[in-house]
Amino acid sequence: MSERVTEAQALSDRLIAIRRELHQHPELSLEEIQTTARLRQWLTEAGIRILDLPLATGLIAEVGGQQPGPTIAIRTDIDALPIPEQTGLSFASLTPGKMHACGHDFHMATVLGAALLLKAEEASLQGTVRFFFQPAEEIGAGAKLLIEAGAMAGVAAVFGAHNKPDLAAGLIGIKEGPLMSAVDSFLIEVTGVGGHGALPHTTKDPVVASAAIILSLQTIVSRWASPQEAAVVSVTTVRAGEGAHNVIPDRVTLKGTIRTFNTAVHEGVKERIAEIATSVARAHGCTVSVSYPLQGLPSVNNHPAAVAVAQRACEALGLPVAEAVPTLASEDFSLYQVEAPGCFVWIGTGCAFDWHHPEFRVDEGAMSRGAAYFAQVAVEALATFR
Which residues in the chain show pLDDT less than 70? Predict the structure, then answer.
């Protein structure tokens, strides 16, 4: 076992206490005021400097800079979800209807642990390690806010991680190339002519048109996209009428999500959605508008040089490594990778319930390994990206 892992394990009790406090007080995206305040307090108590940036929630801290060298970044997310907790844990959420059901409390404690480890060796760091405590990951807005505030200025490489319940606790999942999907939301508004439910022949029924559009959209994946390319098109919301059983409405709204790994496939899917919605609506005598109301995210795409850093860090620490399996979930960490080479990995937490489940849990013992991983990644990256 490496010395760094031993040092991280010595922090285990403290990291568990921090994680449990954060778990008890979850805050939703862009509401992370108390979470930010506690992080600021812990970092300040450790003598870690915090950058003065125009952020309403979240913060950026730095360690190092006493010797010349590059700046590398390590990122954690800090927001929770609007999910009522059902774990029965003694430190369960004290805020009704809100829960750290994606493990961002685990992430915060892990990255804070890495900051504490690196602070202890600050004088020897060949450059600067910048820590992003990022708000609003769950709504895909936080990375953009940090980038606009100057977080990536001068950053040579960026690293991050997400817990993975289906991997053994402490196992690090690493993969070069696409790991998480690009994502877009779509909005389809189908407009027809409403009327009495007993007289459908006097209407142009947008409900029937919408049903046909929903079914036809499924052919994009089954008959347009290559079987070798992952793609998902899911209609997730259908809104029509005001609840009257005998009124055919004049408008139906459909919302959904697109997930792909390949940029060309992603743009092609968007074109096909518009083509199908327009032609099917026209066949039913209706009109349609298609829009993409939320800013989409690119794929999390791990750079070879950053992946090599992650692999060397695990080898140096003796941490177990597995080939990471990609997922069609998305992550705004990808926006940092547009700015600089980056690597995003899984940290196994070995628990039964997956992300966003009301009984979601983590194996807290994995936090010390995660802290050691990030600290070692920082040292390896500073030597690599000079």
Answer: 1
What token pair was written down for 194?
């409403």
Is there a contact between 382 and 70 (Cβ–Cβ < 8 Å)? Answer: yes
- Pairing of β 71-77 and β 177-180: unpaired
Helix (H) or strand (E) holding 299: none
Burial label for 79, CB within 10 Å (0-12, 13-18, 19+), is buried
320 class by beta-carbon count within 10 Å (0-12 exposed, 13-18 middle, 19+ buried): middle
Token output for 374: 């990030």
Phi, psi (rounded to 5 degrees) for 171? -70, 135
User: Tens digits of per-residue pLDDT, 18-49?
Assistant: 999 999 999 999 999 999 999 999 999 999 99
Distance CA 361, CA 161 (A): 17
Q: Which pTM does this prediction carry?
A: 0.92
Nearest to 110 by CA among 8, 2, 7, 6: 8
Contact assessment for residue 297 and residue 179, using Cβ atoms and an 8 Å cutoff: no
CA dihedral 272, 219, 181, 368 (to 10 degrees): 160
Residue type present at position 193: V
DSSP reduced 3-state for 177: strand
Q: What are phi and psi of 297, to 5 degrees?
A: -115, 140
Is 135 in contact with 57 (CB distance < 8 Å)?
yes
Q: Which of 178, 167, 26 is nearest to 106 (CA)?
A: 26
